[in-house]
Amino acid sequence: MTFSERMLKIDRRIIFAVIGVCTLLPLLYPVGLPIKISPEVRGVYDYMEALPERSVFLLSIDFDPASKPELHPQAIALLRHAFRKNFRVVAMTLWVSGTGMADQLLTQVAQEMGKEKGKDYVFLGWSPGGTAVIINMGQDLYQSFPSDYSGNPTKGQPVLDGVQSLKDVNYAISLAAGNPGVEAWYVFGKDKYKFELGGGCTGVIAPGLYPLLRSGQINGLIGGLRGAAEYESLIGKKGRAVAGMDAQSATHMAIIMLVIICNLFYFSQRRASKQQHQIG
Amino acid sequence: MDATVIGAWVATGLTLFIFSFLYKDNPLFKLAEHLYVGVSVGYTIVKAYDTVIVHLIVKPIFEQGEIALFVPVAIGMLMLTRYVPKAAWLSRYAFAFIVGVGSGLAIPRTISSFILKQIEDTVRPLLSIAGGDGVIFSMNLLNPASNLNAIIILIGVSSVLFYFFFSIEHSGPGKVVARTGVLFLMIAFGAAFGYTVMARMSLLIGRLTDLIEFSDTSYGRPTLWLLILTVGVLVVLSRRKPQSEPPDLH
User: Fold this and answer.
1) Contact (CB<8Å) B113/A186
2) How many domains does chain A have?
3) Which residues contact B28 (CB under 8 A, 6 or more apart)?
């Protein structure tokens, strides 16, 4: 067996170990590689910056703990920005399995920023129906969510003063790991009720959302952990996403190297077998 | 013991048990996998019951007297007739209602959002008007709205659509167009795969970040102890003799 044949039949656990080491080392010994801000992430940041104080900011936390590593840092960075700008934050989720996590992250950031529940923010929780909830909220928010996650009636809460439906929302962002998510918020929300919409998503669904970004259907897109790191850099409060960027770069380099090496071995093996055929 | 510490031990243990599958399938992985499925289904059922049955049906009807809610409840109950063979036909009314309303809501909105808006974006002007002086052609590849990108998108959309047009043979100039379409498709698949790799690596980074955090003494070093436990169990399992196959009785 030639060297290239041996390499192409290498135990896959060795590759797992290489990727594991490439991820672990930069996390233990970060080097702080620079982070370039992309226009799509800046689109969300600039729009938030331009809004006046006490604007109504709707954050739909449409993911569950399975996508936490990518979307949790995005949610934290966006909430920090919104609270720093003194927006009225209305949070909710279209994913029932993400309800507890969404409540925990909102409470954590609100406490950190010294915000008051009911006055500065409210967590509406989850309501059944998926996309129908968005349509219902566009007609009457209080019909979809008669009470918030804690069981308090939503009507009369100072944070929702003057908010009757989605038409009264100044800016909405859906942090999505799938469907219902950004697309549903555009199709059944923005397109019908005409409020501005931004998006945040996992890396897997990001390529599918770029057409919406280019056509202006959403005004910005925070994609994956990298997008979260960019947003953390923009608000000047670095967190878990920025800390993970060195590891992300290292693993990408490792994967590129593995792809190149495997191709080299493959072509060398093919050339050797061709030569053998010619001799035979 | 503090709930955070218990949470750290559970999260660390389950992460390591799941990662143990990278070595080979084993009972620790099965335990974590079954727990994941069971806990997530249980959580969903409890949350759905609390939100839907208690807060959106029982309380409004019996505390606020919203008797109109009996109509959607009745439609919903019709679905349960599927379990009674003689009355199963009644469920068709509920399904008909859902399909009808769902299609009515989704079809016009989807056509507007995903077809008309996207076509509008694809057929952008290939030249831009600059003030009153004349027309310009912007060549910036990094600007999605540049004229050069408008041409690239037009070529990409047309060639990919042609590639999926099977009524004529892809030969001569048609072959060139179809090949161009394949090239665009490959670039799109590559970009999607690159993003997928990035997403999967992000998940690994997230779990490893937690494992590093939970190796701290304030949590009682769960990462260290549970790693030793996991490796120990894997060693014991790999040394255990494989059970002999049951005898074939036929």
Assistant:
1) yes
2) 2
3) B16, B17, B20, B230, B233, B234
A214 CB neighbours in chain B (<8 A) are 121, 144-145
Q: For B1-57, what is each residue's pLDDT tens digit? A: 688 899 999 999 999 999 999 999 999 999 999 999 999 999 999 999 999 999 889
Query: If 0-12 CB within 10 Å is exposed, 13-18 middle and 19+ buried, where does residue B91 land?
Result: middle
Report the candidate in B106, B49, B71 with the shortest Cα–Cα distance to residue A135: B106
pLDDT in tens, A202-241: 999 999 999 999 889 999 999 999 999 999 999 999 888 9
B52 touches chain A (CB under 8 A): yes
Cite the DSSP H helix spans in A113-239. Answer: 131-139, 141-144, 182-185, 191-193, 206-214, 224-235
The ipTM value here is 0.90
Residues A273 and A168 in one domain: no
Tokens describing residue A171? 């800016």
Distance linking the first and last C-alpha atoms of chain A: 18
For chain A positions 147-206, those within 8 Å of chain B (CB to CB) are 147, 151, 183, 186-188, 191-192, 202-204, 206
Which among A147, A183, A225 has CB closest to B202?
A225
- Same domain? For A25 and A50 the reply is no
Query: How far is C-alpha B183 from the chain's CA centre?
Result: 27
Number of separate helices (H) and strands (E) present in chain A: 12, 6
Peptide bond between residue B27 and the one before it cis (omega within 30 degrees of 0): no
Per the structure, the complete domain to which residue A266 belongs is given by 3-30+245-279
Whether residues A153 and A270 share a domain: the answer is no
Taking the model in full, what pTM does it have? 0.90
Q: Which parts of chain A are beta strand (E)?
A: 56-62, 88-93, 121-126, 171-176, 196-201, 221-223
3-state class of B148 per DSSP? helix
Same domain, A128 and A154: yes
The answer to whether residues A23 and A52 belong to one domain is no
Does A188 sit within 8 Å of B109, measured CB to CB?
yes
What's A164's domain CATH number?
A: 3.40.50.10160
